Amino acid sequence: MKAIRRLTVRPVLPDPLRPLSELARNLRWSWHAETRDLFQSVDPECWAAAGRDPVRLLGTVGPGRLAELAEDRRFLRRLTAAADDLDYYMTGDRWYQAQTAKLPAAVAYFSPEFGITAALPQYSGGLGILAGDHLKAASDLGVPLIGVGLLYRHGYFRQSLSRDGWQQEHYPVLDPNELPLSLLEEPDGTPAQVVLALPGGRELRARIWQAQVGRVPLLLLDSDVEENDLGERGVTDRLYGGGSEHRLLQEMLLGIGGVRAVRTYCRLTGHPAPEVFHTNEGHAGFLGLERIAELCADGLEFDPALEAVRAGTVFTTHTPVPAGIDRFDRELVARHFGPGAELPGIDVERVLRLGMETYPGGEPNLFNMAVMGLRLAQRANGVSLLHGGVSREMFSGLWPGFDADEVPITSVTNGVHAPTWVAPEVLRLGARQIGAQRTEDALTVGGSDRWDAVADIPAEDIWELRRTLREQLVTEVRTRLRASWRQRGAGTAELGWIDGVLDPDVLTIGFARRVPSYKRLTLMLRDRDRLMELLLHPERPVQIVVAGKAHPADDGGKRLVQELVRFADDPRVRHRIVFLPDYGMAMAQKLYPGCDIWLNNPLRPLEACGTSGMKAALNGCLNLSVLDGWWDEWYQPDFGWAIPTADGSGTDADRRDAIEAAALYDLLEQRVAPRFYERGRSGLPDRWIEMVRQTLSLLGPKVLAGRMVREYVDRLYAPAAAAHRAMDADAARDLAAWKARLRAAWHGVSVDHVETSAAPPTAELGTTLGLRVRVRLGDLGPDDVEVQAVSGRVDTEDRITDADTVPLKPSGGPDLEGRWVYEGPLALDRTGPFGYTVRILPAHPRLASAAELGLVALPSQDLVEAAGLLMR
After folding, report:
1. Can you tell me the mean pLDDT for 123-149?
2. Which residues contact 197 (CB under 8 A, 6 or more apart)?
3. Nearest 10 degrees: Cα torsion 803, 809, 811, 816
């Protein structure tokens, strides 16, 4: 019989066990091994059945066992120690509190998904896992972050396979009362809500659930409330589900509703109001509009409010391709704003102008969420050094007249939260070497360039650790593979072969990620005969574990999954290659440590960062990857291999895949497998173990989320907070008026004449030339601009590369024709082809970048031909 109603019955814990409830509700247990061990000891069988989720565990343990534990002195001592440790963690000073700089009182961090733990399935892939690691690292460092997202009642889909290997999606319903969440309540006990206005007089209401991620509160908005109509209740049904209007409503709720949720949370708890708002990808971009509306309601005009909001906003882009950005039809956005809808006090045209693609190559009828994010943020970044360059190129249309490398988008390379992703066995080895506290500090705060203590770990201990982790992965794979085949309809009698799948002494390769086409899941299948030879080599076999989900609407991705599954089903190789469905955090935490090689073969440069290889590296797994994302930045032959890239303009996609697949096979056959199986005098693979050491000691400190968050604090949050504090109403009005005056007068700005003290075709290194420039400033004055000499080497088309800029100083003017004279030195400080030009830029002390307005005056082509200096 089917129940007509479902409810959650919570256990009543005996008084001595009450601290268990607080330990379960704080998600620090997801990365704190001692707390997890405590919960496991409550009831090991229930712990496994509950999916290692303390909240579910406490809901299933019988009263008899609880009464027994309440009398168990040893357990109570461990419980008291765990509760005291959590209290110290929550209240004690950490890295952030020890800084002398004036840092933000609080930072609001918005993301459409958060991967904290498998017990809270609110993530689909790398963006969400990165956001979860950001929150955890902020907690470890003591950064006063408030996370903001949506609570999806179906989460992301669960994946299984049909008998013929086709991906199937399932959407289990999540009950928030069964999750590690609590409702944010008003003083009278009613649930706190945020309300958005919809066209036609309708409303979208959402409750605010709170997850406690260590020291960081995570606010999740849930539209499945009785006051909403059926359509509005479904706004937060699925992550990345539905059509355009559904996605727009999700992003309005995340951005606008999210700011209102933060205000409500701060009002109810006394938490300091955020001085910095950080939007993780464009999905939350509407948060800037809500903050503008707040300031306008306090009497500030739109333009000054825009400047005030920009000062304290940080925008992070994660996509290297325009197709990865949410874009909405202009009319759809217009319908949801203005009179009779949301933010009625703001002119709809002002809203639209923030997101329209009004630049060369853009589609003027589309509203682009990333473009809005960039226009509403004074500081922006990509997520690796290479991705920063790709982003500057991709968005350069917003800053016409500037070279791509001057586009004001910096980069902070992603990191991963080591306590979440490092296997307990690796942690124990570190603790044995340098002590538990030093190990914890090294993995959370970081700060050192090298982990030199790794050099002192005996080679046999490293090799034994690697085999133990590989053996655990083999066990995990067999369990999951058997469950998958049962779901595919196989009977027990058919599955005896699974007991021989994988071998704990064979070189093990891992490949797990989302399955868009650019990640090339099936590149390894390009030459199947050659792959079979690798898998079945009599002396140096390899084995491969593959996992990944295709987007539910991506039939092309599903076909790639099916192609891989069908190959892995072949009886000749199924003991050497497996596909595991339903890739998620729980699987990943076994997969990364257990692999010897982490394979990554995207189309370069379409991988923004690719953090899975970082998680593998922290467990002593070596990377074999295309030079994309973070690997392009930090690769060294000491700790991995680079797959060559065939990205010449004359190479079509099919030929590129063929070339790069052949290079992959060559590396595995000739370099990777021989090194793994090669034995030194001690009987161990000495050269392989040395690469593991180098991976841990040199890569380890770089790939930490603690390093990443410290960079965000120092390079983005602190400057944004300072700009926010300085941008009071008067300063905002002054800056907005100055920008308006500058834009109106810029047509009158020009470079009229350039001359040098000498202009020989060749000159000696170290020579200094005198530059004299006449410029027109129109209605502007010298305080409004900076005149610069830009010099450097030139390429074959006379474009300046690796440019240096030197400000020139006014020496006279205006003359009768309104021209000003600027002068300054030009140092010939490098050999080879050399050139210079002159330009005029806006200048104001409150600009974060001279390119901020996208305005620049350059010499005319006639002037370039008459006065340009090229030295060869």
Report:
1. 96
2. 203, 204, 340, 341, 342, 344
3. 80
The encoded tokens of residue 600 equal 């990554």
Looking at residue 860, its pLDDT comes to 83
pTM greater than 0.70: yes
User: Which sign does the torsion angle of CA 454, 455, 461, 466 carry?
Assistant: positive
CB atoms inside a 10 Å sphere around CB 682: 11
pLDDT, tens digit (0-9, with 9 covering 90-100), for 385-415: 999 999 999 999 999 889 899 999 999 999 9
Burial of residue 427 (CB within 10 Å: 0-12, 13-18, 19+) is: middle
Task: For residue range 534-556, list pLDDT tens digits in order.
Answer: 999 999 999 999 999 999 989 99
- pLDDT(364) > 90: no
Q: What digits encode the pLDDT tens for the residues 371-387?
A: 999 999 999 999 999 99
Residue 218 φ then ψ, to 5°: -115, 115
Per-residue pLDDT tens over the stretch 74-110? 999 999 999 999 999 999 999 999 999 899 999 999 9
Q: How many CB atoms lie within 10 A of CB 770?
A: 12
Q: Determine the Cα–Cα distance for residues 215 and 144; give it in Å rounded to an integer.
A: 8
CA–CA gap between residue 702 and residue 623 (Å, rounded) = 15
In three-state form (DSSP H/G/I as H, E/B as E, the rest C), the secondary structure along 505-546 is CCEEEEEECCCCHHHCCCHHHCCHHHHHHHHCCCCCCEEEEE
pLDDT digits (tens, 9 = 90+) for 664-718: 999 999 999 999 999 999 999 999 999 999 999 999 999 999 999 999 999 999 9
Angstrom distances, CA of residue 805 to CA of 363, 595, 773, 865, 869: 34, 48, 15, 21, 16
Mark out the alpha helices in 538-652 (DSSP H runs): 555-568, 585-594, 612-617, 629-634
Alpha-helical segments (H) within 435-524: 436-444, 459-487
Helix axes 459-487, 585-594, angle to 10 degrees: 140
| Cα separation, 824 vs 787, whole angstroms | 10
Sign of CA dihedral 477, 479, 484, 488: positive
For residues 166 and 562, give the distance between their C-alpha atoms in angstroms, rounded to a whole number. Answer: 5
Distance (Å, whole) CA 236 – CA 220: 10
**Scanning the structure block, which residue is given the tokens 């593959």?**
546
pLDDT at 249 over 90: yes
User: What is residue 493's DSSP assignment?
Assistant: G
Q: 346 and 289 in contact (C-beta within 8 Å)?
A: yes
pLDDT bracket for residue 5 (50, 70, 90): low
C-alpha span between 534 and 777 (Å, rounded): 69
Please name the amino acid found at residue 496. G
Contacts of 201 (CB under 8 A, 6+ apart): 340
Instruction: Indicate left, alpha or beta for 7 from its phi (over 0: left) and psi (-120 to 50: alpha).
Output: beta
The partner residues of 640 in beta bridges, in order of sequence, read: 623
Residues 502 and 596: their CA atoms lie apart, in Å, by 13
Tell me, letter by letter, the H, E, C secondary structure of 235-278. Answer: CCCCCCCCCHHHHHHHHHHHHHHHHHHHHHHHHHHCCCCCCEEE
Secondary structure (3-state) at 266: helix
Which residue in 677, 706, 678, 675 sits closest to 691, CA to CA?
675
How many whole angstroms separate alpha carbon 583 and alpha carbon 579?
Answer: 10
Q: What angle do CA 710, 713, 714 make, to 5 degrees?
A: 85
Amino acid (1-letter code) at residue 336: H
For residues 585 and 593, the answer to whether their CB atoms sit within 8 Å is no
CA distances from 4 to 1, 59, 175 (A): 9, 21, 15
Asked, as a colleague might, if the bond just before 814 is cis with ω within 30 of 0, I would say yes
* CA 656 and chain centroid, separation: 28
Cis previous bond, 825, omega within 30: no
| Beta carbons of 223 and 205 less than 8 angstroms apart | yes
pLDDT band at 869 (very low <50, low <70, confident <90, very high): very low
